[in-house]
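Progress against Task 2.4 (sequence-to-structure conversion) is shown through the following example record, which the project officer requested during the mid-term review.
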Amino acid sequence: MIRPVRFAAALGLALSTTWAAAQAWPSKPVRLVVPFPPGGIVDTVARQLQVPLQQALGQPLVIDNKGGAGGTLGSGEVARAAPDGHTLLMVFDAYATYPLVYPKLPFDIARDLTPVTQIVSNPLILVVHPSVPANDVKGLVALARQKPGRLNFASVGAGSSNHLTGEYFKSVSQTFITHIPYRGGGPAQQDLIGGQVDMMFLSAVLAQPFVKSGRMKALAQTGAQRVAAFRDLPTVAESGYRGFEVNSWVGLLAPAGTPPAIIDRLQAEVAKIVHAPDFAARLNEQGLKGIASTPAAFGATIQAEQAKWRRLVTERQLSLE
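Structure tokens generated for the chain above:
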């Protein structure tokens, strides 16, 4: 039997050791792995967070773009990294669906990685190349039904929000539109601008400059409500598909076993940044909403996303293996 005094002393020592470790962290540059090429939503958020977060941590924050296999290559690398807080992972919603579309995933998202915080959320914008002869959702659906399989849509990879949103849209609109997966948001956007693909569900922050410049045409947004950046653009639900709602998100994770004190400090620092008035206003202008959820709340979000998409993945047989 452990005496209460001994137990309290042991617990106090453990807590003080963990706190000391967190206070000493970071002791060297922190590597932030973005598992996609530059130019996508994850990379965009990472670079906006880079300067204020490294100032808060007192060490350089080095962004390392490790694209490939829909983001699973870079994610797997972080899953195998030392859990000392010096290697972190920034992902978007595709992370939650990895186990659904990659049955032979070489790491376990529940076992090998731990949630830190959901950083932002944002709706997707249904954009098309200017040459596509449709100016709204109704016109696009009519065109797709006239030419089944002739229209195509880009995504940043299988299981990503823009892939699953495209499949969801095909399901509710009863259309056949061909999916074209890319290795990341940058290449997908460039091919849409170049006319190699017809359409895409693109994060609001990424779509905004292309729509303003006329290089893309926006038809609808996927959120339940319109965002300030696209206040004149109807939602898909307003366009005739009631109940249609999809929001993309970006979040931060660490290798499993990272000390809780480090996780908590990371979450707290991110929260200070995204809720600072100037930073929050900038996010709002881009169609992004700062979240900075707790690790537990972010974990619950990931589980909810899996449940949400499981039925669609099963019905449309989206597994890659």
